[in-house]
Amino acid sequence: MQPVFAALAAAAALVVLGGVIAFVVLHGRSGAATAKTTEDTQTSDSARQATTTLLSDTLRRNELFAQLVTRLGVDEARTAAARVALESAGFDFRNMHPGDSVTVVREDSVPVSLSYHLDLATRYDVLFAQDSALAQFVTEPVETVEAVLRGVVEGSLWRSITEAGASPQLVEGFTEVLRNSFDFRNGVDKGDTFALLVEKQYVDGAFYQFGDIVAVRYRTAEQTTEAFLFSESDRRRYYCDAGGRSLDRLLEYPPIVDGRRTSDFGWRFHPIRRRRIRHNGLDYAAPYRAQVRSVSAGVVARCRWQSGYGRSVLIRHEDGTTTRYSHLAGYGPGIKSGVRVSKGQVVGLVGSTGLSTGFHLDFEVRRSGKAVDPLEVLASGYRQVPERQMHGFRRMVLESRDRMKHAGQP
Question: What is the pTM of this model?
Answer without folding.
Answer: 0.63
